[in-house]
Every structure is written in structure tokens, then in C-alpha cells.
Hints:
8 helices, Rossmann fold
Amino acid sequence: MLTSSTQPRSVLPAQLLLAARALYHRLFRFQLRLRCWYADRTHAQDASGLPLPPALLRYRVSELLGQDAFLTIGEGCARLIEEHSRSMGVNLSLCRRILDFGCGCGRTLRWLLPAFPGVEFHGADVDRQAIDWCSRNLPTARFVCNGPLPPLPYPDCYFDAIYCLSVFTHLNEAAQDQWLAELVRLLTPDGSLLISVHGSGAEKALDPHGLATLQTAGFVHRRSQKLQGIVPDWYQTTWHSEQYIVSRLSVWFEEVRYRDIPGSAQAIVAARMRNHRARKDFTSTVLPL
């Protein structure tokens, strides 16, 4: 597999450097699809007999192909959701409906569904292939494919809890604000929201200019051509400072908590409303369920 260390160096002339980078990106995508094809030669299942998604769908949610990594990370995400929900006073087993926004191919849902059989789980994602796979293989949940911008096809105050992992780590600021407003619209008056952002452990991936921007503006969005055709063009990489994201969520939520995930580049931000809406009125078009 090509790694960042094999990318062309900046000592090359500018035009040659651009051509070399374009070739590298094409080669990367080719070898990735080849590895996915090879990984899919066997029909994998987990210990319970539930099928695993195709390798390319697994890669889209984590940039990893390994089956064990897919299952281990998914189980860990489910535990994080339970843990941080409890810390906000939310008992997931008492929720009527929970939304996994950006559910991908069900990496987390496959663990929460059997743990909370009395809860109505929904999943939404822009990835049509992932949603189709979930609809066929996770039949106890309900799934919709959404566009890159709101609305989602649900009425106001429909969910008691919403979680979204590795979603706001990829959106630009305008899309971020629109989706935050939409998720608030969907929450009950005392609903809870859990999102992940790139935490302090991810700052080392930024160059000095990016790090300075993060420290002053609190928000950095970077584009990459490496995964062109693998993920949507608008789905890139985003960093938030703790102060920035807590301040953003505090517009709508009375209680917001930020915590880095040990051993991870991401952090969890948990927010909860308290029996009223600290927000402006929302007007949105809601599609029929």
C-alpha cells in the first residue's frame, strides 16, 4: 500500500509535482479497489452470524479494510455512546427513537440494535450503497438516504437521542451549521446529541499554518484528492478546537461537555436540552416518511 512517505517530494518542479501527485492518487485508488475486491472473495460474518458489509463500504467509514478492526471499533463506538449518554443522564433503553446520523454501513448500529431491542433505531446517510446494504441486512432498524444538505424526512421533535460519529469531522462550516440546526429540529425538548470531532490528538496532522488557524479561528477544513471517487467531493477533513465546538453547540443546548477519547484522534461532544428550546424557530421542508 502506498503511504504518505511514498508521495512525491516538493523538490520537484511545480508542474511535474502536480502530475506526480495526480498519478499517485490514481494508483492509490486503484490498489484500494483491488484490495477491496480481494477482501470480498469470502463472505464474512461476525460471531453472531450477521454478515459484514463489503470491504469498500467498511473502508468508507474508517479508511480501514480489516474485518476485526471494523467490529472492534464499532463495538467501542457503541460503548462510548452508552457511556456518554449516561453521563448526561440519558438512559438509552428508555428512549422511544434514536437516530444514527451518518450511519454508514451500520458499524455502530449492529451493536446497539441487540443491546436495546425496545428502541426504534433509525439510520441516515448520504451513501446510497451503504443504506441499501443496511436495509437488507439490519432489518430491525429503519434507514433513509439523505442529500448533502438538510432536511431529513422526519417531523419536528421526533428523536429522543441523536448520535453522529465521524460526520462533523468532514463537513465545511456552512454545511456543519445547517446540519446542527436540522438535528436540533429533530430532537425532543429534553433530547441529547452526541457528535465526534477531531480532538487534540489530531492536531499533529496539521501544518504550522493550519495549526495557527485552528488556534485563532477554531475551525480548519482541508480538501484532498486522494479519495476522489471513493467519497463525495464535499466530504473532506475538518478540525475543531474545543472552545469553538462547545460555543457552537451552546447556542442551542444548555449543557455541553467535551472529552478527548483516550488513544484516539477524536473527541466526543455531548449536549442535552433541558425541557425547552433555546433556539430560534426553524422552518424546514419535511418529506413524508
